[in-house]
Amino acid sequence: MAIEVTMPKLSDTMEEGKILHWLKRVGDPVKIGEIIAEVETDKANMDLEAYDDGVLAEVRVGENESAPVGAVIAVLSPPGEAAGAKPVAKKAEKPAAVKPAAQKASEQAPAPKSAEKPAPASEPAGREPFRPQVVRRAEPAADGGRVKASPLARRIAEEHGLDLSAIAGTGPDGRIIEKDVEAALAAKSKAAPADTTARTPAAREARPAAARAKPAARPAPGGRVELSRIRRTTAKRMGESKREVPHFYASADIAMDEVARLKDQLAALGGDFDGVTYTHILLKAVGLALVRVPEVNASYDGDGVVLHPDVNVGMATAVDDGLMVPVLHHVDREPLAAIVRQARGLVERARAGRFGGDDLSGGTFTLSNLGMFPVSDFAAIINQPQAAILAVGAIREVAVVRAGRVEPGRVMTVTLSSDHRIVDGVLAGRFLRELKALLENPVALLV
Amino acid sequence: MDAALLLGLYRQMCLCRRFEEAAAKAYSQGKVQGFLHLYIGQEAVAVGAISAIEETDYIVSTYREHAHYLARTGDARGAMAELFGKATGCSGGRGGSMHLFDARHRFLGGWAIVGGHVPIAAGVAFASKYREEPDVTLCFFGDGTANQGAFHEGLAIAAVWKLPLVLICENNQYAMGTPLYRTLSVEDVSVRARGYPMEAEIVNGDDVLEMREAVRHAVDRARKEKLPFFLEAKTYRFRGHSVADPAKYRTKEEVQKWMERDPIGLLAQRIQHLGIANEGQLQALDEEAKAQVQDAVEFAEESPAPAPETVAEYVYA
Amino acid sequence: MPEPRVITFREALREAMVEEMERDPSIFLMGEEVGHYNGAYKVSEGMLDRFGERRVIDTPIAETGFAGVGIGAAMVGLRPIIEFMTWNFSLVAYDQLVNNAAKLRYMSNGQFTLPIVFRGPEGAAHALGAQHSQALESIYAHIPGLKVVVPSIPADAKGLLKAAIRDNNPVIFMESETMYSLKGEVPAGEHLIPLGVADLKRPGRDVTLVTWGKITHTALKAAEALAADGIEAEVLDLRTIRPLDEAAILESIRRTHRCLVVQEGWPFAGIAAEIITLVAHQAFDSLDAPPDRVTCLDVPMPYARNLESLVVPTPERVVGAVRRLLGRDDAPPQPVIAVRGR
């Protein structure tokens, strides 16, 4: 018996829905509760859950096509029955407006009448195999099942990018509990820094997108460009942050004459310092300032402030299809030369679309630099759950007054956006005071 | 006989009757919801009793209390708005038909568990005695209450502590839909009062003047001697237990017989017989009452519903 | 600060009532044998002599009657203290408490306040049998409009009872026969403890025992035993069940990461269930183990002492539950006796 999948009523006023994406293809097995499609209703884009187990036998309403509530949009064959075993009499499918040619081809080749050839095999070679996107926070799986871990252990693991499936639980029934995660963390800090896989949501979201490295489509005037997954994630996170986090902003003008001199001297040294940039020096200065004002190197977790033991600063970086925040680790402890090296490696991997290891995880603070543009100052949106982000403008030649005399000087304006739930104006002020002191007298950055 | 008094009683009884007729109509239109227990046919009890007491005396009543409320407060708007579930209702729309309250007029409810309010009334009387205040408490209840434990405990305490409490049993012959002879082992509820002991009297509850005189006597004794007093008013409910009750358990003939002694009709006859007013003048009073009720309905309809954000108010002080 | 003295729980309650009655003539005490008999458990001993029959009032055995009288008196401005000889007897007055006391203010749109305290002992004492051994706070705490207070030590008993008497709401105040002779330091004179504030009876870092009333002492004994084994149990005495000090519970659980509710009374739809819901919802990411509870077994109280001691929570059962919570290998298994009645 075929099981009909109908267009569900997903809002009180919904009359019809549009299939945005099928997350399953004909021949894919489907489990109860699995998301099989994304549906656009009059209110929102909603996940369409399967209410039955089975195999997707037929898609009646293609992507970007609409159907009224209650209409059959797909047919499942019961589990065990081969897909396409029952030829479906009605073939109501109309070609959708926009479809990749390959997909169209596959759909124009109807399921064969004989049951011998399952649908997936009819997929033309060369078509990118469908991979379901993980949209929800996925529980790390071990042996195909759910890893047993206490909520606390889960939280700590997530904060530190630890893979729970790699940890042995010592709690009742093998549950991973706090002390197991702490032990794993201790072991990790002894071992090589890149031996664990990043598991932050950002990393999970970003990696497949980066791996695909699709060239960004340049929008034609009047046209509409579908957001990439990474751009969508960025859009979602930025919206959430601006909505949820009470931002406030504090700016400071910093004399950059000494930093400019230092940069030239370092560049002249070459070697490790080959290609040193203002950003590298800024990263180091920010790292040290964060050590001096650790309350800014923090996160708000709903009930408290998490003061991060490490100082890992992310650099907001534009990539082809969106915004990424590769992270430089331990910028407080690493010497400037190492930071230059780390940053260079990151940039290379970013260009290749191949971030790995901890590249995208563990950030505790973010730096956004638009100094390469004629931007004098700007305010950035906090990268949740971090407490603050520093927006850096261009270094400008200005007239400065020193000891009563007007002189030419180089000034850069930085603006700290802070989460006011945990960072107060005084803290922001102290952080900027430290940063200014470090940059105006940058010898400390070399120590 | 005081002409103004009689006309006043007549107008009050008309107000009660017209109010409840309008409430029943509003109920049929879905404007009043929940339970609606009508008092039609019993108006002489409430109006006569309450006309006999001081403004500072207390009243504690049941879920069939529209007439008691109106006789005490005259506030048809507040009562109707309460039935409509509006913010301007005498209980802010939180009480409904069964829970009318007016602290300023010492109208202490509006209680809807049969008999549960009898000890409360005893407590109010206790407070008067405790504070050595002269006030008396009137407690109204129906004949069905006579089998409830709380009724007996209230009477037992009122008797042993000699509380200034006047208990008024409105015997309308039916405990909800069951005739009294099937549920009560005695013919008159008042015989039960004697066992506590407590002075008891049976009154014609359809005669507003007899009711008034009996209550005046009882309240007087309660006030002066700090003693409870039990009055059983024999009367009849013209409608069902609630508007949802078709009252099939009574014969048409029985209802007809009682309606012939409609308390409002009886009073009208007396007024005309005494030459205090003619039919046209009485009709004018009735029209006045109708207009007041119509005003109350309009007021209730136009009033706002309670603000949703107030739903959690007044759970605690 | 008044100097603390050591007095009994019973004396602390009496002091609270006497001090409040001397302060405010609208307060009176009413109940079975509170006057001439000097109180079934001697809580009101001497109060009749002090205040006379007008204010210390013996009642008939008619809980519905005198509970209702208290409500009526409170409606018009008096401040009654109604003593139930035990809370088991309050069940015949349940209608008064639930339908009348709890709802008056709401039904009347705030026209009336009801400053009244219902107090008396509850829970298991010693072999009193099924009808006299019930811990009933959950059924009263279920009702919006009532406050529920269950103190565990004399000082709290005094401070909370004084606050309850001054409260403008109906307050259910629950004591215990077995605690009346319990001694403790109590400040002399004015000593008020606000309702709704929990008290940390013992700090710890490994697990929070959330408890109240008499069973607080069971939890404290268990904590003592656990300490000998290197397990630091925190004992949080709620003192007031409604309003519940949610912040104190969550604050503690977020520190210890483990929650065990230790209560008298039955498990089904009990207060532990309410607290665990709170913790699971509000402190989910702080939990290192599923929250658990130790309660009375789900049976009426048997008379025989050996059976009774099986039903009531003991320090041993608390210790066992904590060890299971911590995943100790040597933790005893869940008691085999049916937690659910059959």
Structure summary:
The complex is a heterotrimer of chains A (447), B (317) and C (342). Chain A has 447 residues and is an alpha+beta fold.
Biggest contact = B-C, 45 and 43 residues
Alpha carbon gap, first and last residue of chain B:
48 Å
Percent in strands of chain B: 5-15%
Biggest sheet record of chain B: 6 strands, parallel
* Average pLDDT taken over every residue of chain B: 95
- SS field, number of helical segments of chain B: 12
Shape of chain A: elongated
Residue share in helices of chain A?
Answer: 25-40%
Rounded to the nearest angstrom, the radius of gyration of chain A is 27 Å
Notable characteristics:
heterotrimer; B: 317 residues; alpha/beta; two-stranded antiparallel ribbon; 12 helices; 8 strands; globular; C: 342 residues; seven-stranded mixed β-sheet; five-stranded mixed β-sheet; 34% helix; 18% strand
Description:
The complex is a heterotrimer of chains A (447), B (317) and C (342). By secondary structure, chain A is of the alpha+beta class. Chain A contains 9 helices and 20 strands. In chain A, the strands form 6 sheets. Chain A has a 6-stranded mixed beta sheet with strand order 11-20-19-18-14-17. In chain A, helix 7 packs across helix 8 (336-351). Chain A is elongated and about 90 Å long. Chain B is α/β, with parallel strands linked by helices and 317 residues long. Helix content of chain B is 46%, strand content 12%. Chain B has a 6-stranded parallel beta sheet with strand order 2-1-3-4-8-7, sandwiched between helices. In chain B, strands 5-6 form a two-stranded antiparallel sheet. In chain B, strand 3, helix 6 and strand 4 form a beta-alpha-beta unit. Chain C is an alpha/beta fold. Helix content of chain C is 34%, strand content 18%. Chain C contains 12 helices and 14 strands. Chain C has helices at 9-23, 47-51, 63-75, 94-101, 104-107, 137-141, 154-166, 215-227, 246-256, 271-282, 305-311, 315-325, and strands at residues 4-8, 27-31, 56-58, 79-83, 116-121, 147-149, 170-175, 183-187, 199-202, 207-211, 233-237, 240-242, 259-262, 292-294. The longest helix of chain C is centred in the first third of the chain and has 15 residues, at 9-23. The N and C termini of chain C lie far apart (54 Å). The A-C interface holds A 150-155, 170-172, 175, 177-178, 301, 303-304 and C 250, 254, 257, 284-289, 324, 327.
